Amino acid sequence: MPDSAPPPEFGEASHEPTEALEPSAADLSRTRTEEAVPHTAIIVPILARGVTLGVTTFFRSRRDEAFDEDDLRLAEELVARAAVCLDNARRYTRERAAALVLQRSLLPHGVPPQEAVEAASFYRPADELSGLGGDWFDVIPLSGARVALVVGEVLGHGIEAAATMGQLRTAVRTLADLDLSPEELLAHLDDLVIQVTQEGHEADPGGVSGPGAVGASCLYAVYDPVGLRCELASAGHLAPAVVTPDGTVAFPDLPPGPALGLGGLPFESVDLPLEEGSVLAFYTDGLIAAPGAGKEGLRRALTERELPLDQLCRRIVDELAPSRPYTDDAALLMVRTRRLAASHVAAWDLPADPAVVARARLMAARQLGTWGLEELAFTTELVVSELVTNAIRHAAGPIRLRLILERTLICEVFDASSTSPHLRHARTTDEGGRGLFLISQFTRRWGTRYTAEGKVIWAEQPLDPDDTPARTSGD
User: What is the DSSP letter of 127?
Assistant: First the structure.
């Protein structure tokens, strides 16, 4: 091999003939009539952001002269441009994968176990390549066999809208655990959005950012399968469509309320009586924004009832938001209402008399025998005794005891007081104060919710007494 310059440093382009590539005179003569043989090479590393992504090799075979410096500069320019494209593609793939993980972690993976409704959902982001958007929906089991149905929308698209959506969804689930009424929950959510927005502006007064959660909309509904009623309130969101069992489609008159973060006007709730088997369609405005869609298009699509709920949900989205590019995210949550069988609910009105506690325990034990749950009699009598005694001592007016058999055994005591009990740890020398502590140990969870007439203290037990109770929750 002839003498040559020192080898290039790692990451530098180089060009030189090699023994394997240098053709002899006979070879050059033969290549003019036969297949061309490469005789010179340029090797250029593919560099992007200080990282070597690969190596590009250029060969010359059909021309006799070797590569020169101009050829080397041209090769370096070509490879540099290709490196930018490769790096952009690599970064996009990585960011899209992270974005998809974020989006999937923010939206529900399925309907949680409950008996109140049959649910199906479908979500189509405006940018299907990134899979990110600001619409969300949720199904949240509540106390008393009830279920919360949520749909909301954040302004904008992309990862910022998805992150804001995740914050709002988490806040709604946390507030739902407090058993607030729909208008109260939206009022708390509105206050939270205003507070977070103000804190963000104070922390970064000169920062340039999107609207965040300000202007987001949310619809929150609570369905009771015992009373067949749905109470719902809206923060700037569209009212759901209600399909009765005979196929009639209606849009209830729901006060829209202000969007989140604007403050000022109060939120109002509406109480809707529903028939068993009614279908409620909760949606975002992207579903009806396409030309020719609208509420009438949704009404027509909902009249096709021969399909299962999940297939109907997907078909409606495909029909009303089929075109590309999508102008807005589209989300649809559909639920079919169920009624808890009357044989699974037992209720008794009790006088505010301490002597009635023993009778309440007896009635509860008999009902458990009817349901074949004799193994739960001991803990249920303990719960009934404590809750009824507390209502007699600390509340006023009539008392109502109710047992509900669902996926769990639910014990509820209604009274006319708005005072909530608090769990405390009694000292060794205290004669009382251990009732709620025992309830928290023997039940899966317990809590308090308020009504227009007073409050309800409830406790849930697993039907299998061998199940380990989950972490308890108080009021």
Answer: B
How far apart are alpha carbons 82 and 104 in whole angstroms? 33
DSSP state of 288: S
Q: Which helix (H) or strand (E) holds 82?
A: helix 69-106
Q: Which CATH number characterizes residue 217's domain?
A: 3.60.40.10
State pLDDT tens for residues 383-410: 999 999 988 888 877 899 999 999 999 9
- What DSSP string runs through 378-446? HHHHHHHHHHHHHHHHH--S-EEEEEEESSEEEEEEEES--PPP------TT-SS--HHHHHHHHSSEE
The C-alpha atoms of residue 214 and residue 391 are separated, in whole angstroms, by 42
Are 219 and 272 within 8 A, CB to CB?
Answer: no
Mean per-residue pLDDT, 362-379? 94
**Residues near 63 by Cβ (< 8 Å), separated by ≥ 6?**
none
- Bridge partners of residue 230, in order along the sequence: 223, 272
Q: How far apart (Å, rounded) are the C-alpha atoms in residues 140 and 111?
A: 8
pLDDT digits (tens, 9 = 90+) for 420-463: 776 655 454 444 556 678 888 888 899 999 888 889 999 999 98
Query: Who has greater pLDDT, 270 or 99?
Result: 270
Tokens of 163: 């992150």
**346 token code pair:** 């037992």
Closest of 237, 221, 306, 343 to residue 270, by C-alpha: 221
Q: Are residues 353 and 378 in the same domain?
A: yes
Residues 53-71 have a mean pLDDT of: 85
* Pick from 253, 248, 362, 351: nearest CA to 305: 248
CA 364 vs. chain centroid, Å, equals 38
| pTM reported for the whole predicted model | 0.77
Q: Are residues 453 and 319 in the same domain?
A: no
Query: Using CA atoms in the order 186, 191, 193, 198, what is the torsion angle rounded to 10 degrees?
Result: 170
DSSP 202: H
Rounded distance, CA 447 to CA 322, Å?
45
Range of the domain at 86: 14-99
Q: Angle CA(264)–CA(266)–CA(269) in degrees, nearest 5? A: 155
Structure tokens given for 83: 């490196």
Query: How many CA within 13 A on the CB side of residue 460?
Result: 24
Shared domain check, 327 and 424:
no
